Amino acid sequence: DIQMTQSPSTLSASVGDRVTITCRASQSIITWLAWYQQKPGKAPKLLIYKASSLESGVPSRFSGSGSGTEFTLTISSLQPDDFATYYCQQYNTYSTFGQGTKVEIK
Amino acid sequence: EVQLVQSGAEVKKPGESLKLSCKGSGYSFTNYWIGWVRQMPGKGLEWMGIIYPGDSDTRYSPSFQGQVTISADKSLSTAYLQWSSLTASDTAMYYCARGLGVATKFDLWGQGTLVTVSS
Fold it and tell me: Which of A16, A64, A77, B103 is the most buried (most CB within 10 A)?
């Protein structure tokens, strides 16, 4: 199994902050990585796929980068609607999710 | 509207069987894979397995192989997740989601089904 490790587990930030979340894979997944946002009681929502492609309808303040084993999700200017939990997902070999990063209000 | 609609919440006793459903609409159901994802209370997302309704090709995570059965009825545009004997550790939210391959991102999710197993 490919293991996915996200950091940090929790992130405290203010509206307007630039936020970066990291995801590391236990082996190369090339760029087969997606990022999701999940709010309490809701299904996850796809934000980024193939490491850096923005899903249709997702605000441009979200961006992704990386390849191989190291990836980042960046929110350029945190908005009130962005306080949520974020998950990375590898889909190089079947699929595995990271453990999640909760973005909370500072 | 393109959507996946899952069956309603369930409360079951240990040892009971259960079958959850996930109905697709607004798109060609047999052109996409349907995956199942578990989320235990307060925890993260776990990929359980995936099925291609077109020919019922099914793959499982090693962690869930033998514990659940994934199936589909393409005539009903519905995928299923079932257990033959539930345990308390099956208590979780279960999501179905749509993708384009065995290894896939999920661009469309169901609303989730909460399963509670308690004596």
Answer: A64
The 10s digit of each residue's pLDDT in B17-42 is 999 999 999 999 999 999 999 999 99
- CA A48 vs CA A45, A81, B52, B97: distances in Å: 10, 17, 23, 16
- Which residues between 77 and 106 in chain A have a beta carbon less than 8 angstroms from any beta carbon of chain B? 87, 89, 91-100
Question: Which tens digits make up the pLDDT trace of A22-65?
Answer: 999 999 999 999 999 999 999 999 999 999 999 999 999 999 99
Averaged confidence pLDDT in chain B: 97
- What six digits make up the tokens of A85? 């939990």
CA dihedral angle for residue B54, residue A50, residue B65, residue B44, rounded to 10 degrees: -130
Q: Scanning every residue of chain A, which has its alpha carbon at the shortest distance from the alpha carbon of B42? A: A40
Nearest to A34, CA basis, from A22, A52, A18: A52
